[in-house]
Records
---
Amino acid sequence: MRSLLFFSCLFLLLMGCKPKPDLQGFPVDKWKADKGGCQGVRKTLVPDFKKIRQILKGTTSNDFVEIFGKPDINQIADRNEEYYVYFLEAGPHCEDITKRSEAASIAIRFSSVGLASEITFQQGTPVK
C-alpha cells in the first residue's frame, strides 16, 4: 500500500514538471499586445499559431495564461471543463467585452485537470 502511494505521488510530481512548450519563435509579445484582436495583429499570426497548435495540447491553463496572456473570455463548460477564448479580429467586444461577438476567435478547451485538450478556430465563442 505504501509503495502504491509513493508511486502515485511520484507520478503526480513528475507530471507537474512538464516543461513549457517550444513555441518555435511564435511572437507572443505581438499576440499579447493585441488585446481582443482589436488591432488586427492576431489575425496575421494565425498561420504561425496553427504551426504550434499540436505542441500546445497538454499545456496547463496556468502556463497558457503566462505564455499568451489573460484570455479575452473564460467560459466554464460541462464536467468542470473550461474554455479560454482569444479573439482574432475586431468586433463588438472591442467596445464592451460583455457584448456578444461573432468575430473570429481561437478557443482552447481545458480538461477537468486543467490541461489543454482541444484548440479550435471559430466565429464567436464555443459555449452558447
Note: Residues 2-15 form the longest helix (14 residues).
---
Amino acid sequence: MNKAFDRYLSILFIVLGVALYLYAETLTVSNVGIAIGPKALPSFLAVILIILSTVNLIAALRSKTPDKQEKLEYKKFFIIFISLLLYALLIEPLGYVISTFLFLFAGFQTMERGKYLHSAIIAALFSGGIYYFYVEIFLGVLPPLPF
C-alpha cells in the first residue's frame, strides 16, 4: 500500500466530489411536481464519492504498515486513459449504454484478464441500470441508443 498516493488521491477525490455536488445543484429541475429530479442521482453519487474518499483517507492516515514502493503499471494506465478518451468521443454516436458497456468491459479486462462473461454481465448491468434509474426514475437525459 502506498500511503502517500492514497492520501493525495483521496484528497483529490474529496475535492472532485464537492465540485460535482456543487455542479449538480446547478442543474435545472422541472416543475412537474416530483420530489426527485435529474440532479438527485449526480448529487447522491457525489456524496458517495466524498464519503468513500474520506474513509480511504482516514484508513491511509491510520495505517501502521510501512509504506512500500510499488511498481507503477503504465501500460494499464494508458490503456484505460485511451479507453476513457474513446468513451468521451463515442458517447454521443453510440449512446450511453453501449459506450459505457464497452468502456467498463475494456477496463475490467485491462485490470484482470479472463472472466469475459463476468465482465460482460457486470458492465451490462451497471450501464443499463444507471441508464434506467437516471432516465426513467430521475427523469434525467442521457444519450439514447443509436437505433
Note: The chain has two domains: 1-69, 71-147.
---
Amino acid sequence: MTPETKPNKGTSRGRRILLIASLGLNILVLFVVIGAAVGIQRHGGPPRSSSMDGPGAVYVRALEFDDKRALGREIRKAQRELKVNHKEDRVLIEDMASVLRSTPFDAEMLKSVRATLNEKSALRRQVAFDVWLSYVEEMSAEDREAYADRMLEVLEKGPRKYKKDKPPRD
C-alpha cells in the first residue's frame, strides 16, 4: 500500500489526551471568567473608597482587631437605643433626588433636606465618639500611650488601599 491509500487509524492516544487536557483547561478558564463576572456584579464592582480612609478613621484603625469589633457592637447598640434609623436616610436621599429633578429647581428645599441628613449624620458621629471616649477613658495610661503611638503610625502610613485590616491567620 502506498502512503496515500493507507487506512486512517484515527487520532493517536497522545493526541486524544492532549485534546482532552486542552478542553479541560478551556473550561476552567471559562469558569474563572464567569466567576469573576458574577463576583463583580454581586459585590458592586471594583473596590471603592471607604469611610475608613478619612481622617477620623485613624482612631479606629489604630485599635486592635478585637477592640474594633467590640467598639462597633457598642456603637450599633447605642445607635439602636437612640432609634437611629438608616432607612430614613434613604428616604431623605430619594427626596433629594426628587428635588433635583423638579422644575423649577428649589434650592432652599434641597438645603433643607441636606440639613436634615447632616443632623442625623452628626448624631451618629456623636454617639460613636461618646462610645469611643468611654473606651479610651477605661484604658490604662500605658495602653493609652501605646494607642497614641499606633494612631501616629496609622497617620504616617496614610489611607489604606483596600486591604483587609484583620490579624493574620494561624
Note: Residues 51-157 form one domain.
